[in-house]
Amino acid sequence: MATAQEKAHWDAWVRTNPNATLWQSPEWQKYQEALGRETRIYALMEETQIFASALVIIDKTAFGLSTWDIPRGPVWGLGFGDWELGKLIETIVQDAEKDRCMTLFFSPVEKSPLATHDSRLTTCSRHEQPTATRIIDLALSEGQILTQMKPKGRYNISVAAKHGIRVEQSKDISAFMRLLKQTGQRDNFTIHTAQHYEAFLKELPGSFLLLAFATQTPTPVPSPAGGGVPRRGEVRDETPIAGLLGVIWGSKAYYYYGASDHARRALMAPYALQWAAMRHCKTAGCTSYDLLGIAPPQSLASDAASSDAPPDHPWQGHGGRDRQWQGVSGFKEKFGGTVVTYPPEQEIILRPVAKRLLQLKRKFLG
Length: 366
What we know:
CATH topology of the largest domain: Aminopeptidase
Oligomer: single chain
Distance between the termini: 37 Å
CATH architecture of the largest domain: 3-Layer(aba) Sandwich
């Protein structure tokens, strides 16, 4: 059990490491524990100097088994070699085996030195963390951020403004949940429980919720002689038509969840939300805004054979659910930014038979 001083030391080290992200932070640890998951922190140290660390998220499953995940980790310092990292991983593996762990997952920011030295480490089919994303440079001025966007992105932001879309920061997770249920049903994807999003907003430090509202032009009041007399002014619609959940961690900001009313899509509220989120994060001192996941480079090409994404990648393909992911990528592309890619997720399978049996159980029995 780490002391408060040790945790503070780890916190300071993570925050100053250029490869560290939200998913290897004390804030993410707090959020995961609020969801009921066990967490552990591992650090390779010499006296007070940390060379590498890993925040492990543990999911308990059936039959007392578990999976261990190191999201966007481990994190290591400059000049750190494969021998040292191997020592850290071996300690984690030994503890995972004692915990009846089936699989240990890794998704580091950059290629691990272990990738070519540990025969147990293999590329896995899971895609919990995206292999590519778009990151907007918030160090630019607002005018420069708009200029680097695709013309259609700027145009849709202006369309939302002309329609009087207003964006407000909110704590109304129920309103966001209603929109999310609509979006999930429309686009045929599974959403989390309301408690999941409540925990994100309430327990994850730096999180924020933005809701978009329409300003409606009033309809004429019917007169006895027929026709109508327009009411003066406009009516504020208090039912949100789109929502966005994001989080700020240090100088980095992340767009995490989005939802919208498809019937009001012509108002371009999601574009107003993204622009408002960028401005909100920039004002808070952030220098980057991560759109969190796009199709891997070239996978939006019309010829699937030309793609450099693996054939089974969930963001690859041209039909059904795959087309929806490509639509998400097309939406994010309109905001410009720099495409950043990551190594594919990897795993060390510790209990292959147990993992296969559990997969079969879930497939046939649910």
